[in-house]
Alpha/beta hydrolase fold-1
Amino acid sequence: MHAGAGKVRQLPYPGCAGCASVSACPTAAKSQGGPCGGVASQLHQDSTPRHAAAAPHSPSSSSCSAVASCCSLSPPPPRGQEQQAWKNGIDRPIHDQALRAQRRARVPEPHRQERLEKARGAERRAEHKKWKREVAQWNLSSKLLAGIAGLWILATTLLLTVPEAHGLITYLHWVRWPPSRELTDLVAFRLPHARNIEVHTADGMLLKGWHVLPSHQVAAAASRFPLDSRAREEFFDEAMGRPDSRIVLYFHGNAATRGQFNRVELIKALAATMQAHVVTVDYRGFGDSTGWPSEEGLALDARALWAWVEERAGRGEGGAQVFLYGHSLGACVALELARHLPLVAALTPECSDAPDFSSFSPSSSNAKESAPAAPASLVARRPDAGDIQAGRQAKSVTPSGVILEAPFTNLSMAALYHPSALPFRLLPFFKHALILSMHERFPSLEYIQQVQQPIIILHGRRDRMIPFHLGEELYHTARLARLRERPETLEDVWFAEFSQAGHSNMYAYPQWTDELHTFMGSVEGAGNGKVVT
């Protein structure tokens, strides 16, 4: 507030004379016609009577000193929200509410009801649209579930009634994954120290696979040779035939190919952590191999792969250490090969007498019920004179051990406990009908009683495909058979439980490396293992 002669002025904010920025003398500003000059002049006129009794002074000097003192004491102008509040005034919200109340009061009552009805109608239409969307989503979900259930029932019916469909559902060999990669393109699978191999079976099938070198000096030496050169092939064969080499024959499970991600990673882990030559093929009908899969055909494929490895591993003095590694369905394939190979091992020059194969028939009545008999062409027989003569001329390469990852007792039990069979497990007749309808048996429970090599079983507690108790049953059956027939080899049966592992990721756990290192080292050293519970 400024007091004049008979007049009171309201300034914009306290302490300012009406000029926001005074940088020159108000008298000079007045002479130039600026706003400051007018303010200074008015201040001079208003303050003249007040200062008349004081010491005389010039009008210009008193005006300048008054404005200078006023502006020098003025605070800076407000900013942001304070400035906005200053412009609107303290009573602006109250004023706006009063205006809105007056406008509502002027609206006639019928118009107000009409607006309310429109708002309620829009709300009802929005709720109806939301309800229609929910119904459409529910219908789509129910149709999808009905379609899946229909396919489920159809697949189960075909499995139980149509023999031709049994192979398609059991093996799933028509599934190709990854679909866009050529299986012979080793660079795409990041296998630079590997080669493509071809194996011919006894019945004329062509199997294609890989031979991966150990990840140490051998792999580094192989990089000196050009790809697909004859010198490189000879180097791979020579490296496999060294006496200190370790070889793993890997048999994968059903579905897809050897190029599936978890299988490629497992092969890399075996080559890197176990320092082993890893040899694997796709079974007939899988991947880029020819033919159609069957139980007898997969057994012939395993024997052909063993013959291919034996031809190269038996070149060195003393031979290499060869292990059979089977996963899921491949575990049964490895067991069948392991129980078949003692025939050849017993016919070497170091053995003068043929083994007694009478103990190869399972003596347990439960085993006979749960694991049906194998095909006639796969049953072990007593060797004749021709076999003995052929065996004496053969190289003495035998499996050092058998590694079984997520095995099952037989194919019927694996199908019964598969997640897809969960709705049918409650039916009283389903189990019996499933066992009778299975044309492929894969009786691992019978095969493991005939295996003489050290065995380690790896099974994960979180396996949703093959239940953990099937692996335990296989382990106890093997120990019982050895206790009854070969008590000195009882400690050659191992079992390793993985509390966190599932069906196909066991290689990612440090325990997997520790168990295999201990098992292989014990087998290669003392020849006896231990039981890991």
Observations:
- Residues 110 and 116 are 10 Å apart (CA to CA).
- Confidence is low (pLDDT under 50) at residues 1-74, 346-395, 526-533.
- DSSP finds 20 helices and ten strands in the chain.
